Each structure stands twice: as structure tokens, then as C-alpha cells.
């Protein structure tokens, strides 16, 4: 199946802009650009809108009336999925990792405004309980005569990966229109790996000389290169493409997680301050701040060559700035 034949519904404000970051690029010594996927628009925007265009097409075709997914308290994916549910007349159900907080902030507040039914799971038991609980909510919906549809964590499926295959096609068109050569390296955060899997397939198709570097924002029981290889290989197979990846061909830097998933890191906070103060651009402490810290350090260490063309995928996430006001205020002098 060709990309244009994969069923898709329009949700995002696409194409998103590509901006050159002249000032910070000059400081770092690279030709730096950013793909503004924080401006995909729908439901507050971010990378998951691209995946949801494909996943919602399947959910609607399925006749879904209840849309179920999971993530952390500050999951942008959960927020955008809840918004997409509402757009297509479905009830959003979220199973979130973390106990019920006294006050809802950031993405969690937006989930509440969207009227999502929220189950909070203690982090201790999360990984054993999340799938059974999502299935239980699906069974309850089915018993009421409402067809359920479950989107797994991060929308990380071969179908969801089509979002970033099509993002690379969009980028290749934008660069061609501007007469710019393709970037040497694309840098993106890795939460579940679906975005990087899509970028790998997209680059194989449209930018074959461009390398993709993922920056992990959490640990993973199964190493990220293995998870991403499965998604990329399934996605390529879906498109009838022969390309396959071995885990050792997939570059994921794991040194920028800091204290853990969704716990701000010093480097990530410094990257947030640096980008805001040099370019007026907001990152977030869970995903993009840590990923940009990896980009800065990669240039410093020489794994990203001086003078090369670097494209950062800004995956969104700014609602998660607000719940971390205290730590970010403390670090404001950084
Ligand atoms: C802002 C932001 N960046 C990056 C990611 C990670 O994307 P992926 O799960 O495709 O690796 C997410 C996922 O929720 C996100 O919300």
C-alpha cells in the first residue's frame, strides 16, 4: 500500500513551519533548523496529532464510540487523543500512570476540561495493570453497546508511525521549495519510539542520506533500538517497502534521561532556558528539553559534526511546563 492509500483523517494544521535558528546555530557551530510540530494545532498540538490522523481513521472505520488510551499525568498523547475522541463524537477514557494528585495541572487539567474519564494507576503496579484495565474499560463499553477502540501507549504502532513518514515527505517538499539541501541529521525525542520509527521510514523514502538520532527521555525494559526496529520494519512492510532495520543501525542516545521519565533534568532545564533566551522558543521538561540537551551535547562531543545541517523535531509539550513551575523557577538563573 502506498502512503496516500493508507486511510487518514485530517486533524492537524499542516504543513507546520520549518524555522532556521540562526542565533543558536551560530553559537553551536551548526546550521540549525527546527520543524515546528508544536504547531500541529489540533487539541493543543504536538507530534501525536500526526499519528492520530491515521489511528482515528481506523477508529472511525471501526465504528468506535469509546476511545481508550494511556500515558503519564503529563501525557501530551493522552490529551490529544482525548481531544480527537471529542472531535469524532467519542467518549475519551484515559488510564494514567500516577496517583490522583490534589490539583490537576498542565495536560491533566486539559484532560479534565475535555471530560475524559480518568483512572489513576499507582506507578508501582502500572506496567502489570495497565493493559488489563484498558481491556476492562473496553469490555464495559462493549457491554453497554458502545464500540471501544484502544490506542496503545504513545500511539506507537506501525499505523501510527505513518504520521512521521508523511512528516518527512512534507519536509522534503518544504526544503525542495526553498532550494535547501536535505539535513545531514534529524534529532527527535524518544518516548515510545513511534516518531523515530516513522522518521526512519520517511528518510529511507525521501531523504536517503539523512541520519536520524533519537534522544531517549525514559528508560526501557526492551532497548529502544529493538522496539523501534520492530515498528519501522512493520511500517515499511505496510507500505510494501523492502527496507528493514537491525537494532544496531538505529541510533538512540540514552544519556539524557536524567533522574527518570517526567522528572526534570538539569541539562534539560538548561536547554529550555537557552532556547527561550536565544530564540524565543519554548521546550518542555519531559520530552523536548531533554532531547535538545542531547543535541547540544552531541555537537559538543562531535557525534553531530560542526558545520553540518541539523534539524530538530519540536514535538510540542509546552502544557507540561506549568506543573513544573517550581523547579523551573528555581533553575531560572541557569
Ligand atoms: C512532546 C513530546 N515529545 C516526544 C514524544 C515521544 O514520542 P514517541 O512516543 O513517538 O517516541 C512525546 C510523546 O508523548 C511527546 O508528547
The ordered string of helix (H) and strand (E) elements is EHEHEHEHEHEHEHEHEHHEH
Task: Name the CATH architecture of the largest domain.
Answer: 3-Layer(aba) Sandwich
Largest sheet: 6 strands, mixed
Strand content: 15-25%
Q: List all distinct small molecules, including ions and cofactors, that are bound in this structure.
A: pyridoxal-5'-phosphate
Question: Per CATH, what is the topology of the largest domain?
Answer: Rossmann fold
Helical content band: 40-55%
Q: pLDDT below 50 for ≥5 consecutive residues: which ranges?
A: none
Mean pLDDT: 97
CATH class category label of the largest domain: Alpha Beta
By DSSP, the count of extended strands is 10
Number of domains: 2
The largest sheet has its strands arranged as 1-2-10-7-8-9
* Structural class by secondary-structure content: alpha/beta
Q: If helices are DSSP runs of H or I spanning 4 or more residues, what is the number of helices?
A: 11
Anisotropy-based shape: globular
Can you summarize this structure?
By secondary structure, this protein is of the alpha/beta class.
Q: What do these coordinates show?
A:
There is one protein chain. With 334 residues, the chain is an alpha/beta fold. It folds into two domains: 3-47 and 157-330, Rossmann fold; 48-155, 3-Layer(aba) Sandwich (Rossmann fold). The protein has helices at residues 22-28, 48-61, 76-87, 106-113, 126-143, 158-178, 194-206, 224-238, 266-279, 288-301, 325-330, and strands at 18-20, 31-36, 66-72, 91-97, 117-121, 148-150, 185-190, 211-216, 251-253, 309-314. The strands form two sheets. It has a six-stranded mixed sheet, with helices on both faces. Strands 5-4-3-6 form a four-stranded parallel sheet. It binds pyridoxal-5'-phosphate (PLP). The site of pyridoxal-5'-phosphate (PLP) has 19 residues, from helix 3, strand 7 and helix 7.
Amino acid at each position: 500500500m502506498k502512503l496516500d492509500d493508507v486511510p487518514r483523517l485530517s486533524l492537524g494544521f499542516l504543513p507546520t513551519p520549518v524555522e532556521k535558528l540562526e542565533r543558536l546555530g551560530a553559537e553551536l557551530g551548526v546550521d540549525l533548523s527546527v520543524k515546528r510540530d508544536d504547531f500541529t494545532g489540533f487539541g493543543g498540538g504536538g507530534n501525536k496529532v500526526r499519528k492520530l490522523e491515521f489511528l482515528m481513521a481506523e477508529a472511525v472505520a471501526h465504528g468506535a464510540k469509546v476511545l481508550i488510551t494511556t500515558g503519564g499525568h503529563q501525557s501530551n498523547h493522552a490529551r490529544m487523543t482525548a481531544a480527537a475522541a471529542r472531535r469524532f463524537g467519542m467518549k475519551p477514557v484515559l488510564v494514567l500512570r500516577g496517583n490522583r494528585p490534589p490539583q490537576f495541572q498542565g495536560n491533566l487539567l486539559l484532560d479534565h476540561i475535555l471530560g475524559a474519564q480518568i483512572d489513576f494507576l499507582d506507578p508501582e503496579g502500572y506496567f502489570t495493570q495497565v493493559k488489563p484495565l484498558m481491556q476492562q474499560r473496553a469490555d464495559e463499553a462493549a457491554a453497554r453497546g458502545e464500540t471501544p477502540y484502544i490506542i496503545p501507549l504513545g500511539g506507537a504502532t506501525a499505523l501510527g508511525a505513518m504520521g512521521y513518514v508523511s512528516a518527512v515527505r512534507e519536509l522534503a517538499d518544504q526544503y525542495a521549495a526553498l532550494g535547501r539541501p536535505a539535513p545531514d541529521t534529524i534529532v527527535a525525542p524518544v518516548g515510545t519510539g513511534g516518531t523515530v520509527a516513522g522518521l526512519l521510514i520517511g528518510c529511507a523514502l525521501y531523504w536517503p542520506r539523512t541520519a536520524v538520532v533519537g534522544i531517549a527521555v525514559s528508560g526501557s525494559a526492551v532497548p529502544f533500538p529493538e522496539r523501534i526496529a520492530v515498528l519501522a520494519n512493520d511500517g515499511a512492510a505496510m507500505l510494501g517497502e523492502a527496507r528493514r532495520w537491525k537494532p544496531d543501525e538505529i541510533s538512540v542516545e540514552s544519556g539524557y534521561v536524567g533522574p527518570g521519565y517526567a522528572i526534570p533534568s538539569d541539562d534539560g532545564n538548561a536547554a529550555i532556558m537557552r532556547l527561550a533566551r536565544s530564540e524565543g522558543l519554548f521546550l518542555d521538561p519531559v520530552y523536548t528539553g531533554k532531547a535538545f540537551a542531547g543535541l547540544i551535547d552531541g555537537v559538543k562531543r562531535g557525534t553531530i559534526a560542526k558545520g553540518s545541517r541539523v534539524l530538530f523535531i519540536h514535538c510540542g509539550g509546552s502544557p507540561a511546563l506549568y506543573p513544573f513551575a517550581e523547579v523551573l523557577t528555581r533553575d531560572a538563573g541557569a
